[in-house]
Amino acid sequence: MVKPSQPPRAGLVLAVLSVAAFMASLDVFIVNVAFDSIGADFPGTSLSALSWVLNAYAVVFAALLVPAGRLADRYGRRTGFVLGLAVFTAASAACAASDGIWTLVAFRAVQAVGAALLTPASLGLVLASSAPEHRARSVKIWAASGAVAAALGPVFGGLLVDADWRWVFLVNVPVGIVAIGGALRWAPRSRDESVTTLPDLLGAALLAVSVGVLSLGLVKGPDWGWGAGRTEITWLIAVVSFLLFVGRSRQHPSPVVSPALLRVRAFAWSNATALLFAIAFAAALLSVVLYLQQVWHYSPIRTGLAVAPGPMMVPVVAALAHRLAARVPIGVVVAAGCLALGGGSLMIAASVGRDPAYASALLPGWLVGGVGVGLALPSILSAATSDLPPAEAATGSGVISMNRQIGTAIGVSLIVAVLGTPADFAAAHTAFRHAWWALASVTVVAAVAAIGMTPRGPRSGEPGTRAPAWVGPPA
Length: 475
Fold this sequence. Notes:
By secondary structure, the chain is mostly helical. It has three domains: 8-188, Growth Hormone, Chain: A; 200-255; 261-475, Up-down Bundle (Growth Hormone, Chain: A), CATH 1.20.1250.20. Helices cover 77% and strands 0% of the residues. The chain is built from 17 helices and no strands. It starts with 9 loop residues before the first helix and ends in a 24-residue tail after the last helix. The relative contact order is 0.14.
C-alpha cells in the first residue's frame, strides 16, 4: 500500500517533475541533431562509433528502467528521483567535458543510469503529490512534457549545436540543480510498502548484454563481414544472453519482465508493436538528420528547423487518434500510423536528390511520417495496459517503455549498417534510399502486429477504460 504525504504545493511539485522529464526527453532529440558536429570535433570517428553516443544511452536505459522503478518504490521515490537527477546532471557535465568519443559514450551510459532512476520515480511522485481527483490531469501534464520536448528539441538543439555541441549537455546542469532543490523542498516522501523483494539486476544486465551485442553486430557487420567469425560470435552471445534473461525472468520473484504479463494478449502485442515501431521511428529520425547534414550540408540550426515540423504534428494528431479510438479498434489506428510512417519514408526516398529541395522533396513525406507517429505512439502506450490489473499497470508501462528503448538502439544500428561509408553522392543516395526502404518494411511488420493489440475489453478512449498508470517515460 502506498502511503504518501500530501505536500501543500502540488503544482510546484508537478512543475519540478515535468521540467526534469522535459530535460531527459529534450536530451534525446538534441543529441540526434548534434550527431554530425560531434563527429567533426573528433576527427577520424566513424559513423559506427558515433552511433554508440545514442545506443549506449538507449541500451542502459532500457535494461535499468523497470528495476530502477522498483528500487524507487521500495526505498523511496523522492530519494530515487533526486539521486537519478543528480547522476544525470553530473554525467551531463562530464559528457560536455569529454575529450574523446569513447569517453563521451561512457558518460552517456552513466547519464542513462540517472534517467532510469528519475523517470519512474518522477511519475510516482506525481501520483503521490496530486489529489485523487487531479491525478489523471497531472499524469497527462507530466507526459505532455515529453511531447513538447519532441517538438522543440530539434530547434532548441540546433541553436545550441550551432554554438558548440557541448552545450547540448551543459544546458542540463543549471536545470538539474534547480530541479534537485525544488524536489528536496517540495516533493513528498513516498514509497510502496508492498514491495519487499529486490529487482532482478542480473536479469537486467543480461538484457543489456543481449541488446548491446546485437547492436554491435549490426553496426560492425559491414566492416567485419556478415559471415565473419566475429559477427557470428556476436549473434551467439546475443542469443545466449537473451535466453538466460528469459530463464531468469521465469524463476526470479521480481523479474524485469513478468511472464504472466506477456500472457495478456493486448499487452504482448502492444510490446511487439512498440519494439518494431521504435526501430522505424529511430531510423527515420536519424536518417533524415544525417541526409540533411551530410548530403545537403545543412547547418545544425537549419537541420533543427527542418526536422521540427514532423514532431510538431504528433500532439495534434494524438488528440485525433484519441477520438478515433472510441469508434475504431485501437489496433487499426496504430496500424494506420505505422503504415503512414513507412509511407512518409518512401515518399522521401522517391523525392530527394543531390540539390536541397526541402519544401517539395522532404517536407511532405516528413509530415506524413509525423502523422503516423501521432496516430501510433500514444495509442500503443494507452492500449498496452488497458487489460492489465491496476496493480500491474505501472510495471506494464515500464516494460513497454523498455521495449521502445530497445527498438531505438536497434533502429540506430540498422541505419548505420545500411548506410555504411559511401564514397560519393551516388553511393550515399542509394544507401539512404535502401535505409528508407528497410525502415518502411519494418513498419509493415509493425502494422501486422498492431492488429493483435486491440484489448478484449472496452476500446481505449471509451468510458470505463483505464488510463495507464504510466504512459511511458518522456526519454
